[in-house]
Amino acid sequence: MRKLLLLFALAGIFLTSCSDENVLTVSSPDGSINVRFEIDNGKPFYSINQKGKAVIKPSALGFHLQEMAPLTDNFRILKSTKTTFDETWEQVWGEKQFIRNHYNELLIELQEKEGDNRKMNVVFRIFDNGVAFRYIIPQQENLNNFVIMDEITEFVMADDHTAWWIPAYQEHRYEYLYSETKLSEMGSVHTPVTFKTNDGLFLSIHEAALVDFASFVVESLPGNRLKTDLVPWADGTKVKTQAPMESPWRTIQIAEKPGDLITNYMGLNLNEPNKLDDISYVKPSKYMGIWWALHIGKNTFWRGPDLGATTENAKYYIDFASKHNIPLLLIEGWNPGWTTEWYLDAMHEFIFTQSVPEFNIEEVVKYGNERGVKLIGYHETGSNLVNYLNQIDEGFELYRRLGINDIKIGQVGTKLNMKEWHHGQFGVNYYHDVLMKAHANRLAVNFHEPIKPTGLRRTYPNLMTAEGGRGMEYNAWSEGNPPNHETIIPFTRLLAGPMDYTPGIFDVMIKYREGRRVHTTVAKQLALYVIIHSPTQMLADLPENYDGHPAFQFLLDVPVDWFDTQVLNAEIGQYITMVRKDRHSNDWYLGSLTNEKPRNLEVKLSFLDAGKKYKAQIYADGADADWESNPTPVSITEMEVDNNTILNLELAAGGGQAIRFVPVN
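-> structure tokens emitted (665 positions)
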């Protein structure tokens, strides 16, 4: 059901024009957030208050252009337009089926007072839980084709807040552990970047609807001042564009509890509705793969005695997946071009239209189809996009002919074509073009080494999931992800969108990789399926580690497509408890996890339907469990509960708990 209400409101309801003709203010629908826009000596500024307290102090707006006067001053307000918007729309898939999109909007048309009299518009959307704004350059005689050299948008904070961040302009893109420091200690950082204020507010800065533009990073400057820094092209320019132009939305989420950042859907609301025609091929699913065996060294990506991508090995995985009704299987290393140095920064060349002799793709697809298991296609580009784009049409056509509807595409490398940042305008346009080609070939996409999500999955639902962060594989061949990592990413990386984190490792001590391990208990691995949202969710461990393990049942039961999501308790970097309701049944699922400290957390099950009894299937850390010394015990129990029940969740150090709630009446 879709309900749409669009009202043009009187200015006095939510927008007041001050007696000063250079000042405009606009509030959120509930009145809690107020934005002030002003022209000071020809320069545009904005500021944000929440319940009377400063969130963003007066902050500059505008652009520096190449070989043109800047769009930063000499402005007057030409016109302003006020609207309010309220709708409830349905996600094709996602963490919440029905989402309300309710905001007040202020469109400000600016014009230079002298010179070329160029025009620039700024539009603000104020939600009850945040603020978004974007720039619009309208069609005009004196500003047609132009190059942006710098965006001077600022976020001037009220204090030196606590921040959670990862560094920008580094070799491994977004794949870093989060630091917790003061804002003033950050440097240049990727978004989403999240803050806790001294007043107890939680803020997160990001962007939405990133199309044909450079993504931005945030640079920390003196005076608690944050400035946007557009990721450049190799030639030093930032954005090559022309009028009419709309920038991506710059977003500031505002919450009084950290969990409210997670259930803030402003980023999705700022994107356009679904533009794709037939999306019947887009199906949220769980999958298996030989991926973990390659990372822990049981098998290799490249040809040799331990090659993972063989017909025989694929059939072994298909048999296991079929037995347990797991619908998808990912095979990596199936095509020519893999070597022992495939991941190094070089213009490495893969072939995407044929398989290696050890892997008969036609035979494997036929074998899987007979057993209800489809292949996920895999294209590793090695960031050699010249080679990839020369073959992409034929590569996609091969998958289409075989009836494959899902693909993982990797871009391993510091820079695309060894030249351009993944997250500059070049990369943004590359990922978009590939996504459109994928849709034309009925392929749902999982991007690795991607551009960060900005809510485009609403507009293009075949954009299923992405990596874009430090995932499970780092436990296989590095010092690993510490126990607090999964207590931070829900409030940082996951605010951007779904993540292919690849959880579900039961052999946390990694018998094939001496000296490396996963820094969680097994029960925490179960909880990750609720905490980390992805519509394509991997059961990442080896089949032999699942076979006969009683906790494997939770991985078979837990859905990937949700009707509702709620956060019951959370403290960034410490712990989090979430519940999600299955879109296709009345079952609820709970995930709770902690950092390196053990915890007892009380939760009331008020999210359950009143008057109903539920069977709680509880997967908890076992006796004496500890991520470091005793990570494997899992206690599995059942009890009857209702919406008045208060549960005590006992979490081991580095541990977690997962619960399925099934109605019994």
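The longest strand covers residues 75-90.
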